[in-house]
Write a structure and sequence with these properties.
- Helix content is about 40%, strand content about 15%.
- The chain is of the alpha/beta class.
- It has two domains: about 240 residues, 3-Layer(aba) Sandwich (Rossmann fold), CATH 3.40.50.1000; about 70 residues, Orthogonal Bundle (DNA polymerase, domain 1), CATH 1.10.150.
Length: about 325
């Protein structure tokens, strides 16, 4: 187990509280510190893990092996490239952000920057362009360009987003957004798209709310704590490599929905499963059966009768 994962498990054992007033109060108090993830899950009361009547999600098995089933007590959404078709915009805006400094991005730089914020972005800029690069100014320029772009051209929702949100609301599954983007930009995207109706503002976590950027799991741990949901039964939905690494490091049920990058062997090994769209994720979620428990509605393996095409990860 990695050091990050070990920290995450230790934090989870300290509790997340119940969803509602206590969880929100704890969420308002706790933030990541420079010392790591300790304190991210230190709300009062016991962790809400698997419980009677839990919603479940089917995890596709490897070829020749049966599917698995996991309890779900919360779902955390990344935003750029997962909820909205914005990652391609961020990628494109690196060119005008770097141009005034006589710099230009290459594909490796673009891939590395996806899902990062703050110090992780500064480190990437210095790694690619040298220690003297004005990293903070370039990052501010990039965010200003993005803010103007999204005001003029609101981001379209990714396929299946509202299908999944409706499914989660019908099953009464707590939901959060955890994105490296600025909070104002996250809220603007949610409101202009109509997705804000499915989230409470208190359950929106931005990069400034935690000390460490992805691939550290801090932002997802903070979101899970606000929901009062144990990481082991919290689904993290991600499109980026850095996000999948963060979800796996935190011990989450990490589902990759690829956007601009298809998973390589490393990411397939880290992800719990890989789905082609959010529509397929919705199909994996269980619905209440006749006994009152929440069983599985459809299969989710590639080639299954229902036509879904989610594949096994780890």
């Amino acid at each position: 187990m990695t050091e990050l994962a070990s920290d995450a498990r230790e934090g989870a054992m300290r509790g997340g509280g119940q969803r509602g007033g206590a969880a929100r109060e704890a969420g308002a108090r706790g933030r990541a510190t420079d010392g790591g993830v300790d304190g991210l899950l230190d709300g009062k009361g016991a962790v809400r893990g698997e419980r009677a009547g839990s919603v479940t999600i089917r995890i596709p098995g490897a070829p020749g092996k049966p599917d698995g089933r996991r309890a779900v007590t919360g779902v955390v959404f990344d935003m750029d490239g997962l909820m909205f078709d914005t990652q391609v915009v961020w990628d494109r805006l690196w060119t005008p952000a770097l141009a005034p400094y006589g710099l230009a991005p290459n594909p490796d730089f673009i891939r590395e920057m996806r899902g990062t914020t703050g110090n992780a972005t500064f480190a990437g800029l210095r790694r690619h362009f040298g220690d003297d690069v004005p990293a903070a100014q370039i990052y501010d320029d990039l965010r200003s360009l993005a803010a103007a772009e999204f005001v003029e051209h609101p981001a379209p929702a990714k396929p299946g987003l509202f299908t999944l949100l409706e499914r989660l609301r019908a099953l009464d599954v707590p939901r959060a957004v955890a994105s490296s983007s600025p909070r104002a930009m996250i809220l603007a995207n949610l409101r202009t798209s109509g997705a804000a109706a499915y989230f409470d503002d208190a359950d929106v976590v931005c990069g400034q709310d935690v000390a460490r950027s992805k691939p550290a799991p801090d932002i997802f741990l903070e979101a899970a704590r606000r929901l009062g949901s144990d990481p082991a039964s919290t689904v993290v939905l991600e499109d980026s490599f850095q996000g999948v690494r963060a979800g796996a490091a935190g011990g989450f049920v990490t589902i990759m929905v690829p956007d601009l990058q298809q998973p390589d062997d490393e990411i397939r090994a880290l992800a719990t499963c890989v789905c082609p769209s959010l529509t397929e994720v919705a199909a994996l979620l269980g619905a209440p059966d006749a006994s009152g428990t929440r069983g599985v509605g459809v299969r989710g393996t590639e080639g299954a009768e229902d036509g879904t095409a989610c594949g096994a990860g780890r």
